[in-house]
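Q: What would this chain look like folded?
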Amino acid sequence: MGFEPMTPISQGKRLAGARTSPLCDPSFSHQIYYIATAYFAQILACVMIWLVEINVLIDEGLKGCPEVSWLQSVAEQVLLAQDVDSRAELGLVITSQERVRELNQSYLGRDEPTDVIAFSLLPEPHIERDLPPFIQPPDGALHLGEVIISYPQAVIQAEEHGHSVERELAILIIHGVLHLLGYEHDKPELERQMRARETEILNYIEGGLK
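A: My prediction, written as structure tokens:
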């Protein structure tokens, strides 16, 4: 693929060990301590990222669709950018135009095609204040919900915007996951906030792709 998400893991460099002696400069020991601390923090971050569960389903017959691992990587990076709990879990479905239109009509009352739909399992922010604290499921995972993307619509929009299908899919994944996390765009100010965050995350994961 032409677009590969840039992750802290893939960019990490292995640090060579250093031998010290009781006669070394104390400041040098402090440097080794900070290097070691950063190194093990990076290892811990890697472990936390791998605990995130992204369940991807791609319908048959969608020619040119990126691989499951690529789609998972994009979704993981959105969660990482949002500092979401490492035990989070979400579903990502890449499907047909017809299927997304059916869902759009059944659940949102709109008989028209669309690019992405998100079904959040988190409590609604404006209601949460009046309810008891949200109780996590017994498995301890934070179930965020499901993002459903129309692959044919992503292809159409990629052509309209003059960029790759991968970039368009990344944009739609970001948009859908932010919806799962409570972002909305039904008011001008909320839309500005959401669009700005989408741009920040896209720049974060795409590594400068134009």
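Helices lie at 8-11, 26-51, 68-81, 97-108, 125-128, 151-161, 165-180, 188-206.
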